[in-house]
């Protein structure tokens, strides 16, 4: 692969996930990243992503430099503009310079949730890639969170008891307006790996057709939970009425709903709002995989970085 | 030792201090921290602590990651709450994830100085430890600053001219409300190492009995200074009228007061307010050990980290 | 050399530039910085400087610690003051402690542009050096930006087609009040290396005589561009009417003006305001060297650090 902005460009995603699991067990061996630089550009806040990426890079022997966007000065992204306002630097120069300074660049740039076209096909990472000639890694783009998707796939690979588990992605309540990125990447990644997926959400909250793919769509959450091996909970704002949020407290994942599953495991990407997205008893139970998912972020990032370094 | 939250759990504190001094002289040798991660969580500002801890860790071969609290999002610490407000993540998840990402976690969490019980026995570090199964290091807790205490002990070990020097901890003025942590740790550490201690403070500013221990309590500062080999100055707010501050400019450490000592050395943990805590002439004199104390923070941290890594 | 605060103290600047170019080609070889600490103190924002310096240090094997000024607490710089206000620490203690923690300290401290004497001869770095006994590196001082000057010299060494190219430093428009530092360092460095320099600026915007040196001064920009091999554009505020700014949109560097040169290359230190300092077509043309200049910052810093480490 050239970049890692979405998982579509990964020829064999399962092999990449397995590579992550091997790295987890055997460590990095001789350090392929010695003398190489990863620069991480955070346009949005991050905890797990920042830590897991930095730890992954450093254990590979790479230097890792974290930059908060606008930490130095405001960036101009429009073309042909007379820069006599607030912005002191243009994206073009910043991308070129970071490209010259780094061997790989990783970028987190959340969607604005106002214009689906811009968020999905012309977001910050896409524009950055135009002026920068080295591998880019998405740390969450306008439409996807592929490292999360890869870590989630690794977690299912590690824990599944049957070859074809029933995997359910369920919409859950949240007080804020959130992107569809994590849900899109989970849906895409799981299906790309050859699993079946059921997506449960209130009417109007369906994901884009592009990322729904062949998933079975259900609007009755309890029906979806029947016999499930994995319940992946996540809130997202509407794609079809782009950015709209709804309040549906009846969609919180509870122990009672979990009892309909086949001793299903609970998954969430974190951070999670307790007793809004999911009840304390589910999150604190043995069924919860959230810590393991978070830990796998390190090895997902290592697998990706190692792969990019070996190009 | 399992954690390093207070020095009580250190079986032989002097041996640990001596180990720090050996590290200072001989360096770390082969790196025991290779491939290990120290995550430092700063809920409060830090200069010496951040730098000395990071340098200590890196020279041991560890990766060191610094996190400012709330740099990603607000943290919920209460149990059983419906998280529909500002806080996006619960302490439980953050502690579990940082535990999975790290080999050692270090935390700075100042007391709020409103409730002694909470600050002394149920502070942030105590609650964090409940959900995290790896060694923790206090970078200053609600009641203690044990790395400072260890560095101070190392400084006395390095400079003492007699086996049992007269050591005086004196309260000093300060415009702000400060914790008792540094004073508590100095008192505890010095006595734990077998030295006698005299504590001088205005009436009402006595430390807790728990941390006063066997120290000789004096309310007349000049009497305390007579024949002293070490004067350790520090402001703290009241323990017994919890958090109350007083203004006593007559308690500033001056050259004239120092002349009563036995060519006593001056100590302070820094940062220090010149001509409030201590006069320029004392701080700029040969008697001052403040730079050496600060330098010893590196080797105190190294001794502690090395010890925790070898468990 | 002892410090690197200005290039005057460098005995053979060209040799140092060449050393940078050798580092660029051959890498650092065995790491001379192993176990050494570079602490970078940023009193002002930085992107290229922070990244290039950190990358340079780490590739040399050094640890690099970045500190934002006032990130811990406000610093007092005046002498003899009673510190009962906002500032919690004095420059004296901070300089001594950072000196004990580090092997080299690098400082960025922009001028205030109110008092030329203070900015040019008694700035933060000068005062810091009084209390700190290890090598200092300027990451831009009150009057100079010597690492930029060195990188610019390296860029000319790499690209020049004749032994004595015509080099022009031209004032250019900018909406903000900027220091003279980059211009001063370019003028000084180029002349120190034995090149001739032409400086073009509106009347009243001449650099100090100290840094103008033997340069040919021209007030007609187009005349200056005639036959030039290099056009270095930069805005600066007035030295002689200290800190005054002027608006002269007719001084923007355009393609039409560049056509008067001898296929001249365009240089700028970045960040650059497009269509204010220079037009898009010049910046996006093959003539532009701005990316190469930025890249050379890494190797300029490496050459300087390596030299300081070998003292």
From TrEMBL, chains A, B, C:
Residues 6-158 form the Aspartate/ornithine carbamoyltransferase carbamoyl-P binding domain. SUPFAM superfamilies: Aspartate/ornithine carbamoyltransferase. One of its GO terms (molecular function) is amino acid binding. It comes from the Bacteria. Pfam families: OTCace, OTCace_N. It catalyses: N(2)-succinyl-L-ornithine + carbamoyl phosphate = N(2)-succinyl-L-citrulline + phosphate + H(+). InterPro entries: ArgF'-like, Asp/Orn_carbamoyltranf_P-bd, Asp/Orn_carbamoylTrfase, Asp/Orn_carbamoylTrfase_sf, Asp_carbamoyltransf_Asp/Orn-bd. One of its GO terms (biological process) is citrulline biosynthetic process. Pathway: Amino-acid biosynthesis; L-arginine biosynthesis. Carbamoyl phosphate binds at residues 46-49, 73, 108, 145-148, 269-270, 297. N(2)-succinyl-L-ornithine binds at residues 140, 174, 234, 273. NCBIfam families: PRK04523.1 (NF003384). PANTHER family: ORNITHINE CARBAMOYLTRANSFERASE, MITOCHONDRIAL (PTHR45753), ORNITHINE TRANSCARBAMYLASE, MITOCHONDRIAL (PTHR45753:SF3). Homotrimer. This is N-succinylornithine carbamoyltransferase. The gene is argF'.
